[in-house]
Design goal:
This protein has eleven helices and no strands. The chain has about 220 residues and is mainly α. Helix 1 packs across helix 2, helix 5 runs antiparallel to helix 10 and helix 7 runs antiparallel to helix 8.
Length: about 220
């Protein structure tokens, strides 16, 4: 059967999307090629027409996930003040919806620990994508007019967000988990927004689910 020219690229995208979901939900180490291909509705044998090995898949899936976040970062960037941009990121990232939807959540918090244990193409691909993602996030948030200060503040904010979400997901008591998210939202609003009454995002954006802004994926990113 002869396929149209775009068939291979569309199939590749399906595999990358399936891999992105699987890696977020179960971790890189716990996800095999068979799992990814099954999610994509394909057979294991077709994998090697697109990727050399699992490391190659991990690297490309991470690149695709970070690249898909550009649209979401644009929504943050469009807000008129640094306080509002930071508030939108904080409230979206530290929402219960983001906590509860790992498969379509932030790639950094989902697979960052895995990457520290990997080598070769997987780790280098993730590292390149992550550095580029931080640069894009800095350009979107614009927390300081000075480039060095902006980079430092964005790194501090993102580190706090990732740590808080990681803690909230690790606790099996929903009341305590909710409390972590709530207290960290308040703390980071004060640090990065000043008077929170002055930096609340527009009402429609405040009600929107986290995955509209943060998930590095076609369906649900920073």
């Amino acid at each position: 059967m002869r396929y149209p020219p775009e068939h291979k690229e569309l199939t590749r995208r399906r595999i990358l999307e399936a891999a992105g979901h699987a890696f977020r939900e179960h971790g890189v180490a716990e996800t095999g090629v068979d799992d990814v291909m099954r999610r994509a509705g394909l057979t294991h044998g077709g994998f090697y027409a697109h990727f050399r090995d699992k490391s190659d898949l991990v690297a490309e899936a991470c690149t695709a996930a970070f690249d898909a976040a550009v649209v979401n970062l644009g929504r943050i960037s469009a807000l008129p003040t640094a306080a509002r941009r930071a508030r939108l990121l904080i409230d979206s990232y530290l929402s219960t919806r983001h906590r509860d939807n790992r498969g379509t959540g932030c790639l950094v918090v989902a697979v960052g620990a895995d990457m520290a244990r990997l080598r070769s193409a997987a780790r280098s691909g993730y590292a390149r994508g992550f550095v580029r993602h931080l640069e894009r996030l800095g350009a979107a948030l614009r927390l300081s007019a000075d480039a060095g200060s902006n980079r430092d503040r964005v790194t501090a904010l993102m580190s706090s967000l990732v740590g808080a979400l990681l803690f909230a997901r690790a606790i099996d008591d929903p009341v305590r988990s909710d409390a972590i998210l709530r207290s960290m939202r308040r703390h980071l609003r004060v640090e990065f927004c000043g008077d929170s009454r002055q930096c609340a995002p527009p009402r429609a954006l405040a009600r929107a689910p986290a995955h509209d802004f943060l998930l590095a994926h076609t369906t649900f990113t920073p």
